[in-house]
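Next comes the chain:
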Amino acid sequence: MSTKKKWVITVVVVAAIAVIVGTGLFVKHFIDALVSDPDDRKQAENLTPAPSPKPGQTRTDLGNLRTDDNDKVDLLLKDALKPEIVVAESDVVNMMHHMTHQKVKAKEKWISIEMTPERVQLLEQIIQVKGTSWINYARMLDIAKKWEAGDFSTVDEDHNFFWMIENGSIGKAKGVLTEKEEQEFIKNTFHNE
């Protein structure tokens, strides 16, 4: 066999291997994004529907916050405790999910809300007062209490719980940031004047 034919065969074999490996990695990534713990998917399918406000009530905007709305967060959290304000489970799930972003390692973090002790305390109160009928009430309250106690050792699991409820496909948490990484994230995301 000539050197040229050997070279062509080598190039074809290497290219075929690269295509097979690349396809395998793509399929694995795609399947990982779709397949998750069945219990998590069950939770995602069982989110309490948003309640309709009764006459004299209004629904909170907690679920519609963006990263640059940091100044509105505290006001909306305090307002959510008022009797005339209706709070949907999905809004609190959304806020808690976005708060975890400052503490977790993930490839994608689209929206972030700064997690402060005061905000965690208000979230716990909101869950206790407004969330007793929510499907995920007990787990959400446990997470809020854990955060209020300063325990963030499983915040990546907390993130992924909220992420799955919101049918996440990109941005699954893969660990917890170090204190230094978290402070850098906070500085760059919330205090970058």
User: Anything to note?
Assistant: The first strand starts at residue 58 and ends at 59.
